Model the fold of this input.
Amino acid sequence: MDIRKIVFFLAFTGTYFQAQHSEVQEALKKCRKEFNKKTCLADEDKDSILFYLDNCPTESGPIENRGCPWPDTDKDGILDKDDQCPEIAGPIENNGCIWSDTDGDGVLDKDDACPIIPGLPELHGCPPKKNDCKEYREKANIKFQKFKTDYADIESIYDKINTIILDYMMKGYTKTSASKSAYIYIKYISNNAYFDEHSCYDGIDNEYNFLITKFWNKKALEHAHTKYGKDIYLSTKLSYEDLNALRAHNETLDYIIKYYDQETMKIKIPGKNKSTIGANFSMPIIVTFINPYLIKVEDAKKEMIISYEYKDGQWKSYKK
Done:
């Protein structure tokens, strides 16, 4: 090894340990101003860390956490330092995160042979074949009607967070040089995302459609339109007939249908500034519902994912 590197290493090491020693001395000095010497040098919690260096002097904890016990914020038995979802309780088998049910059929993805297609538990989460469709659709409709009843007030709950999320996701975009010609792109309505002619599943996720129109409702879309003055594109292609069928008793769809574009078969809410279509000019926002009270918001361009959970009457966010 070069002699100059050795000298530099020794000098750096000496400086580091001198700084550490100074910090320890300063901590002891500070402690002595409040307590006597005996207390400062005691180890009441028997964790081998002296009182004046122990951030939790009455609770035993490891030296790596300055004498404090490792927390378990979500009380799932997995310490925060080992928990991939420290704020949301989940099993150890999934690293402290809850198991997802992407298609909302009540069968967890880990046990679901068709994780993106709603199905029946007795068929391992897959829909039955065509000849059994009547019973399948009756059950699906009963399940959906119950879902709507159970979450009849969900729109008022989403109104507490939807515009806040929008404003947060828009930060940064409004300051770019291309922002004037940029447009907001929102994932909206599931329609024939998957269709198998041999299966009863028609590709429409009714629960998702119900929730997304309650989340990105008329109030939220008008907020985006008024505040940012940008074109707003909703992702899914729909025939006018399909959109009209979904529209029944839905104020949001009553609002957006007037912006339906026959040529693209999409909804475009025009802004003040004309947008330039293309990936470089899009401001994409994707909302995924783990369940109605636990959502994941993603901006693929910024590679940013934030989870929001509604608990005890308020929304909490957890950034990944």
